Amino acid sequence: MKQARSIITDGHVDVTRPLTPSTLIRGTRLLCQRDRALAANVRRHGPPPLWARRPGFATLVRIVLEQQVSLASARATYARLVAGVGRVTARRISALDPAALQAFGLTRQKAAYTHGIATRVVDGGLDLRALGGAADASVRRALQEMKGIGSWTADIYLLMALRRPDVWPDGDLALASAVKQLRNLRRLPSRERLQRIAAAWAPWRAVAARILWHTYLKERRARQAT
Hints:
The chain is an all-alpha fold. It is built from 12 helices and 2 strands; from the N terminus they run ββαααααααααααα. The chain starts with 7 loop residues before the first strand and ends with a helix.
């Protein structure tokens, strides 16, 4: 994917250009100027990591494996997959039977999803390389045509692999928990309420998500250490 020189032109954010370490810091500073609660999190825990992932099939598979499980569990499953097949490519995965993928620790459902996505990549039905220059909405449509890819998976791919600056991943429980604490809410906010809250952080919603994930992880580790 061709890297853009700058995400910001004449004061406007180009939401199709990937975040870089410098624009992540710029977005963090701008959000801290607008939102005191986010600023307090950054003062307490420091700026968030970029958490960039390499665009492509292997990353998409990892995100599918992360659906509705812990990151540690998904990492373990992905490691078994790599140990079994070597480099995770669409051609190698499509050549296997879904049952063979289950032998590496994938659930029956995720084995079917992974095999189906691999087959579509190999036959040209899904061109992951072309998504690098597409608008966010076009990327979502292309990905969500694949069985097993919903809005959360598509948004995480946009946010971490394509590093789009203004993506808010619907349905992320860690973000819901972090926003609950940020806004001192009595219960976890609904998806609709989260969207309304996140709208105030545009066009840096992906930066706000990173700040909140960073806070969530830091504070969870602190609780576990006590």
